[in-house]
């Protein structure tokens, strides 16, 4: 949804912007090209692998970018730390880059077989492997139900615990194949998608971090500054919607959520579940 990001974030030459989920730098590059490299961007990502990719991708704009290897839940402290002032706009794209999904070392997806990990920050104490192989059944059930909204959470949690008695579940392929053995595929969606999503959200504390990041963003944005959020999960979207509607310091630019058109869904299937919300700080 790059076109919509540029339209609603409305970056200007001389403005200071934050890409709170930098990834490989695609949105940051679009903003810099749109402003002829005359805007400044703070690129935040807690995954050091993503920062390295973004530095390479944005090399020609190096004078206009500040890279920060940290989580957006610390956005207020980050802005203070680098002495940034008058933030004109902030983008949160809560999705995954193709590079993250295909990185077997990160263990986010099952297109490439790899060790179960799913941590944005490789130094975080709890990985997906820990959850799947050592958490009690009732806790795995809670994670799947709360973060994956799975009606069969109890069944899947029991399946995982029975399987790990035979052998540790070490890889993404092992887990995906196990789930696929007892869940039906829905259209083009793999049966294990909700399971991976739920565990990833838990491992990275994504929902609480999103709340902290949104509150921090409101504190650093200048009057008239805009916040654009692209979410891919109903739990995330509910948090964003509630935050924007309940704040007396924000004005939502659109009452209805913005979704990709059919053409973009065809070109970029990963965008099919994207939901964008936009708000502006009241002067």
Give a written overview of the molecule.
It contains 13 helices and seven strands. α7 packs across α10 (193-203). The two termini are 27 Å apart. With 283 residues, it is an alpha/beta fold.
Helix-strand blueprint:
Blueprint: H1 2-9, E1 16-19, H2 26-34, E2 40-44, H3 48-57, E3 65-68, H4 75-81, E4 87-93, H5 98-102, H6 128-134, H7 137-148, H8 153-166, H9 172-180, H10 193-203, H11 206-220, E5 221-231, H12 234-246, E6 250-252, H13 262-267, E7 275-281
Parallel strand pairs: 1-2, 1-4, 2-3, 4-5
Antiparallel strand pairs: 5-7, 6-7
Q: Could you give a short description of this structure?
A:
The chain is 45% helix and 14% strand.
For the structure shown, list the relevant keywords.
7-stranded mixed beta sheet, DNA polymerase, domain 1, 7 strands, Rossmann fold, 2 domains, 14% strand, 13 helices, alpha/beta, 283 residues, single chain
The class by helix and strand makeup works out as alpha/beta
| Assigned CATH architecture of the largest domain | 3-Layer(aba) Sandwich
> Main sheet: which strands, in order across?
3-2-1-4-5-7-6
CATH class of the largest domain: Alpha Beta
**Alpha-carbon Rg, integer:** 19 Å
How many beta strands in the DSSP annotation? Answer: 7
């Amino acid at each position: 949804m790059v076109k919509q990001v540029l339209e609603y974030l409305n970056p200007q030459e001389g403005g200071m912007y934050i890409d709170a989920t930098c990834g490989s730098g695609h949105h940051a590059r679009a903003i810099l090209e749109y402003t002829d490299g005359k805007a400044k961007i703070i690129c935040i990502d807690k995954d050091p692998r993503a920062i390295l990719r973004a530095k390479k991708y944005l090399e020609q704009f190096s004078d206009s970018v500040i890279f920060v290897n940290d989580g957006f839940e610390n956005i207020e402290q980050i802005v203070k730390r680098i002495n940034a002032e008058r933030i004109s706009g902030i983008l949160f794209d809560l999705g995954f880059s193709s590079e993250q999904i295909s990185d077997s070392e990160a263990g986010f997806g099952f297109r490439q077989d790899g060790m179960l990990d799913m941590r944005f920050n490789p130094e975080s104490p709890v990985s997906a492997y820990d959850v799947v192989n050592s958490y009690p059944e009732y806790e795995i059930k809670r994670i799947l139900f709360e973060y994956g909204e799975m009606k069969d959470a109890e069944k899947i949690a029991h399946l995982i615990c029975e399987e790990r008695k035979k052998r540790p579940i070490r890889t993404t392929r092992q887990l995906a194949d196990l789930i696929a053995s007892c869940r039906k595929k829905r259209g083009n969606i793999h049966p294990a998608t909700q399971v991976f999503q739920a565990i990833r959200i838990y491992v990275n504390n994504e929902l609480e971090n999103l709340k902290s990041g949104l509150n921090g963003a409101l504190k650093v944005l200048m009057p008239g500054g805009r916040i654009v959020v692209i979410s891919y999960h109903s739990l995330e979207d509910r948090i964003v919607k509630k935050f924007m509607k309940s704040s007396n310091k924000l004005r939502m630019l659109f009452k209805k959520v913005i979704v990709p058109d059919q053409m973009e869904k065809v070109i970029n299937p990963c965008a099919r579940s994207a939901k964008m919300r936009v708000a502006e700080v009241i002067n």
